[in-house]
Amino acid sequence: MSQIAGVLEKLEGTSVYETLVQMEAAYERIACEQKQWYDAAKFYCPEGCGSCCEGFEPDLMEGEFLYMAAWLIENQNDIALQIAQNKFPFDNGKTCPLFNPASPYHCSIYNGRPFICRLFGASSFRSRNGDKTWRPCKFYPDDILAAHKPPLAKRQYSESETLQVLGAVPPLMSDFTESIAASASGETELIRDILPPTIRRLLWLINMNDNGNDNPNGSPSGAPPMAA
Questions:
Q1: What is the pLDDT of residues 154-201, one digit of tens each?
Q2: DSSP bridge partners of 60
Q3: Is residue 217 assigned to a domain?
Q4: Which of 2, 6, 167, 208 has CA 20 to 30 A from 41's CA?
Q5: Of 200, 227, 211, which is closest to residue 10 (Cα–Cα)?
Q6: CA 103, 109, 111, 117: dihedral to nearest 10 degrees?
Q7: What is the per-residue pLDDT for 8?
Q8: DSSP assignment of the chain, as one string?
């Protein structure tokens, strides 16, 4: 089921519709392949960790910040309107501005989070020689790794080693990010810089479509274009 069905319906025919559909398909594929990995490997992030959110703010590609804005408008409209005015309700200056310590996942937009947050700790990557490899998350507690059967260390594991110790290999990060990056501008933006104007842009496009504007990708008649 789509996480942004209502927004997609209102944005159909606009310049961002296909990007949002493509992003949601990529996120659904990640969830499907990671489920296979988790079911086979039984290797999960420690409950209540959230260390990867501390002192880190993701750089977003165009598709990521468009989807994040659409997800907020669909699922957390009150918060979306606050962020549109450059007010991040959970921002404490020390973590990602969308980090919520009261949330079970710590992320206040968990189902709208970007690639790095979905793939960190649960994906493989290519080594310098092109081989698929996996490495436990750098924040993973050493005692839990040592207690794993067989014991694990914070080192790089080859594909064959990962299969031997975990029974599966997590999805390859580049499989998901490269195609999306190729269709984007190539530039990335920080959440706090790009999310407010993107929410404003999507709300404007939705309003234009709802009012029957025949040019939802442009400016409304007699009005200046919206800064975005």
A1: 999 999 999 999 999 999 888 777 767 666 666 899 999 999 999 999
A2: 189
A3: no
A4: 2
A5: 211
A6: -90
A7: 97
A8: --SSHHHHHHHTTSTTHHHHHHHHHHHHHHHHHHHHHHHHH---PPTT--GGGBT---EE-HHHHHHHHHHHHHH-HHHHHHHHTT--TT--SSB-TTB-TTSTTSBTTGGG--HHHHHTTS-BEE-TTS-EEE---TTS-HHHHHHSSS---SS-EEHHHHHHHHSS-PPBHHHHHHHHHHTS-S--EEHHHHHHHHHHHHHHHHHHHHTT-S-TTSPPTTSPPPP-
Amino acid at residue number 59: D
Q: What is the pLDDT of residue 21?
A: 96
Indicate if the alpha-carbon torsion angle 47, 48, 54, 57 is positive or negative: positive
Domain region containing 69: 5-123+170-210
Place of tokens 């969830």: 31
Tell whether 70 is covered by a domain. yes
**Residue 66 pLDDT grade (very low, low, confident, very high; cuts 50, 70, 90):** very high
Distance, in Å, from the CA atom of 118 to the CA atom of 143, rounded to the nearest integer, reads 24
**What whole-number percentage of the chain has pLDDT above 70?**
89
Taking all residues of the chain, what is their mean pLDDT, rounded to a whole number?
Answer: 88
Q: Residue 90 is encoded by which pair of tokens?
A: 């959970």
Residue at 68 is within a domain:
yes
- 110 in any annotated domain: yes
Domain count, the chain: 1
**Overall average pLDDT of the 85-94 stretch:** 91
